[in-house]
Specification:
The chain contains 8 helices and no strands. With 270 residues, it is mainly α.
Length: 270
């Protein structure tokens, strides 16, 4: 009986998250193009024919179509169902990690912004101010609510001040790294949107996780770029967006930050 309950609950959570993933695909495609999120309705990117309600079901709609438009038979990118499935899985991890709490709502909201910004940066080499700024404001609002829940007005003020401090640290830290990188490489080392993204991350996750996110993103970037260069898929002069690495580092920090920081302190400072 317990297994049946958790299977049904897990399926519902996955479907709920994948619906957000479906809307996330819309944001990633339409925001950089300056298009409305509402009109026109979802349609084939090749022939423009509108999708039916059944064809628009996250993940399963693409599978039912066998990855092709029913009208023009052109392939539909598998990235759409993969993003939907990713968001469904991330929502499962959120509930497992935080339970049915306000923290879970905050985590799911942050994940939406992080994945959207990572994909847009990957596609267009830009991090839209409308997303980083709205994510930052939402983060400040959540910190006020979480602080008030923890210790009324004093908690709200303390959480808000901590979030602002982490925001400033994020901006200064990446601005400094970008300046040093530009001096060392003789060319622009980092885009102007990256510090804003880290500032947004800091508001949500705090100053300690800002440092952890930077460390993780640099390590992951080095490993991935090094592997790509080793197999001939990347050259030294080829530019890669840093936003996806920051987002990935932030996601790891969200779920494992406390444990990783504790492990570091116990290993090196004890």
């Amino acid at each position: 009986m317990d297994f049946l309950f958790w299977a049904i609950a897990g399926s519902f959570i996955f479907l709920w998250g994948s619906c957000f993933g479906s809307f996330l695909n819309v944001v990633v495609y339409r925001l950089p193009a300056g298009l409305s999120f509402v009109y026109p309705a979802s349609r084939c990117p090749k022939c423009g024919h509108g999708l039916t309600a059944r064809e628009n079901i996250p993940v399963f709609g693409w599978l039912m179509l066998l990855g092709k438009c029913r009208w023009c038979k052109n392939p539909i990118s598998p990235r759409y169902p993969l993003v939907e499935a990713l968001m469904g899985c991330l929502h499962l991890v959120v509930i497992w990690r935080f339970g049915l709490t306000l923290e879970a709502i905050a985590a799911a909201t942050l994940l939406f912004w992080l994945v959207a910004l990572a994909l847009i940066d990957f596609d267009t080499f830009t991090l839209p101010n409308s997303l980083t700024q709205s994510g930052l404001i939402l983060g400040l609002c959540f910190q006020l609510v979480l602080g008030f829940q923890a210790n009324d007005l004093k908690g709200a003020i303390a959480y808000f001040i901590g979030a602002v401090g982490a925001m400033v640290l994020g901006i200064w830290l990446l601005d400094g790294i970008g300046f040093l990188g530009t001096m060392a490489l003789g060319q622009q080392a980092m885009g102007g949107g990256d510090p804003k993204l880290l500032a947004m991350i800091g508001v949500w996750l705090g100053w300690q996780n800002v440092l952890l996110t930077v460390g993780l993103s640099c390590a992951l970037g080095t490993l991935i770029i090094g592997a790509a260069m080793a197999i001939g898929k990347h050259s030294r002069k080829q530019h890669l967006p840093f936003g996806p690495f920051l987002a990935l580092g932030a996601i790891i920090s969200l779920f494992c930050g406390d444990r990783l920081i504790e492990l570091y302190l116990n290993s090196f400072l004890s």
